[in-house]
Amino acid sequence: RFTILHTNDEHSELIPYGPAIDYPAHPTTGGFDRVAHEIARIKAEKAAAGEPVLTLSGGDFSQGTLFAWLETSAAAELSLMQAVGYDAVALGNHEMELGPAYRAAALNAAKANGVTLPILCANIDFDETDPADDALEALFSETDKQGTELAIQRYTIKTLPNGLKVGIFGLLGVEAEAVAPAAAPVKFGNVAGNPMDPVSFINRVLVAQEMVDTLRAAGCQVVVALSHSGTREETELPKWVTGIDVIVGGHSHDLNYPPLTVGGTIIVQAGSYTSHLGVLELEYGGGKVSVRSARAIEMNDSIPVHPGVEAAIDAYKAALNGALGFDILAPYAETDVQGDGGFYVNDGPPFVETNLGDLIADSYLQTARALNPAEPPILGFEANGVIRSNIPPGAEGRFSFYDLYRSLPLGGSPYDPTKMGYPLVSFYLFGQEIWGILNATLDMDDNQFFVQIAGGEYKFRPAGPEFDQADPASGKVDYLLVGGSPLNPAGLYKVATNFYTASFLALFGVRPRNASGAQVDIGETRVDGDPITPGIQEVKCWEALAGYVKNMPDLDGDGLRNVAPAYRYTRARITTPDWYLAEGATAGGMETYVLVQNPGDSDVHARIKFQTGSGEVSPTDLQDVVIPAHSRRTFPVNAWVRSYDVSTLVQPISPRGAQLVCERAMYGDGWRWAHDSTGVTGPYEPAPEWYFAEGCTGGDMETWLLVQNPYGSTIHVDIAFQTGSGEVVAPEDLKDVPIPARSRRTFFVNSWVDSYDVSIMVEALDGNVICERAMYGGGRTWATDSKGTSVLSDQWYLAEGATAGGMETYVLVQNPGDDPVHVN
């Protein structure tokens, strides 16, 4: 028997966060000081039971917070890993983010601080003719140093106290190498110019099989792949490589617990940012490894910190305070205005505009304009992959400089390595190039490349066709407006963006241009923060963001600058024509119909998917349906899915600019009752907040809340109720409720409140959702339904109403605020 403890993608998260300014007075998550406590506790328990423990990291231990600034001096991350007894660490793409010379300096600093950990990567390949990687190659060892000296190794072998021999090899994946262009001239197996060529993955397969064979020949009974490849590649690898018992993964930030199993290979990942510690209890017998128990321990407030590790981290904090000249955890700004608690500045969900994306893109555009008013850029861009963390309101709606920096913590400059962070760049592109890049990034179907924008707006069809340079009508983008005007393909537009993001232009055959349209080197496009001083004085992207926030006014007179309340919501810069219908049920005698209208002059191709309580259903015959011009089609949902929880997503595919109208009708109990609602679409919905004035749980009436999450990541919501007495009912079990990716959850309001007057409030904490409310009464002899509203207003109009002929009409008015409101 033996146990593997593991983390991955720690990204320099040494202290608890969410936000860090709240620690220790308020709830936070993560922190290496908590991970260290649990490692020490579990190791002590296992030692008492005579069971050996291996402690591993799946890579990307660096780059993510201000503590990464200490890599070439104190080597905080590796020093702490050494102190708590890690046995091996994989090399991740972010370890190569600043190039081989920087990584060599960081590892040499770790050696100087007494670190002897093996850094594993079996597929690292140095260039024998280019001296740029010589310093890193000097740290490479073909032989296993057995933890006596820090070295980059292909593998290490651990003989456990119970005699079990475990071989561990490292592997850096295809996608991970593709997003680390600064690693050159070091290579890891990708096909030059086309990393997605299948040969890139085959190269990993060959290396992995060679490692398995080598370790088995050395007498290893157990083989572990310490992989920084992501779940997709890690679940594919065992289909091609025989003999891997366990894959301890990383890169995709997934929480793969319970473990995945492919062909007998056990595959785990422990989230990211020290949010969890993976505990994989294993047994070896009969030549096979089996799971005895597996769990991921969440690093929340219930986990104490390790006193010794916390003391070391305090010293690192003091070093950063000294270097910057201020307290990195002191209040820097707030989203709170006059005690309203503030709001989330989110970096998700994937493939949508986010308010953090708006804030960052705006900061680039405004900073570059201020520094070059004679030749200002007109557009600002940033890719989601560079935006690393949201800014939650925490307990008081405040955040520190440390918290803000976590949003843009990556990289450095090959031109000026004296300060961490990617520099801001500004250059020209032809409109046709911008159009092609935008379409190409959408075709990649990779959220890391999804583009946030300032100074313009675009609409795209997620289900649209791929872009073809030879066909101007192809692609997912419907339109791109710049300053309110359509993009001119032949026009030159000056843009501001991140150096790292701009470095990927080469993937699309594009290079930066000057005002004359001539191509220039990217180094010449760096924004100069001090034109008077000779040379280019780089402005780091995090400096642009911090400066933009620093210049915001103090709106409530508490001495702290406020993030403009307009950033509470997205700015409708990125939209889709998709329709969402949260309500639907096809079980228990209920019928659901989706009605799709095409009022246009051309046929529209569309895709229909259903999101249920157990995930998404995508019927093959609904992935390209035709809605003829000037027609209506009806889709009986019962024909494709049976569930009490069914939401619907309708996505136009083509032609460009296609517009549909969607409604949903429901019938139950032999058509004894029915209700209906239009769907949700448009620039401001899905939304982070939803309100329902109507609701009743007294007098045999039922009220149901339906919450749809159409996105690829879990979204958490808070649900509260308001009653006629002015009481706000906020049940503890309705706080931070997860709505899993591409699913629907149903909440029976009667379970929490009993009142004739019930209004509902839903707040999505880390993204957008769609909400509806259904009501039933009279023993389900009648039913009503309505989508909610995502905005508050001082004027409301209700077209329907009748008070004659035995009819009754009720107007329901909800006030979700903290003060009384007078109405006429």
Backbone shape: globular
- The quaternary organization reads as single chain
Going by CATH, the homologous superfamily of the largest domain would be Metallo-dependent phosphatases
Q: Compute the average pLDDT.
A: 95
Please state how the strands of the largest beta sheet are arranged side by side.
Answer: 5-6-4-3-2-1-13-14
**Poorly predicted runs:** none
- Strand portion: 25-35%
Number of domains: 3
Let me know the largest β-sheet: 8 strands, mixed
CATH hierarchy class name of the largest domain? Alpha Beta
The tally of strands reads 42
Mind telling me the C-alpha Rg?
A: 28 Å
CATH level-two architecture of the largest domain: 4-Layer Sandwich
CATH topology of the largest domain: Purple Acid Phosphatase, chain A, domain 2
Structural class: alpha+beta
Distance between the termini: 74 Å
- Supply the number of helical segments: 13
Helix content: 10-25%
Write up what this structure looks like.
A hairpin with a 2-residue loop joins strand 11 and strand 12. The chain folds into three domains: 315 residues, Metallo-dependent phosphatases (Purple Acid Phosphatase, chain A, domain 2); 239 residues, 5'-nucleotidase,  domain 2 (Alpha-Beta Complex); 211 residues, Sandwich (Hypothetical Protein Tm1070, Chain: A). Helices cover 17% and strands 27% of the residues. Helix 1 packs antiparallel against helix 8 and helix 9 crosses helix 13. The strands form nine sheets. The protein has an eight-stranded mixed sheet with strand order 5-6-4-3-2-1-13-14, with helices on one face. The chain has a six-stranded mixed sheet with strand order 7-8-9-10-12-11. Strands 25, 27, 28, 29 and 31 form a five-stranded antiparallel sheet that branches. It has 824 residues and is of the alpha+beta class.
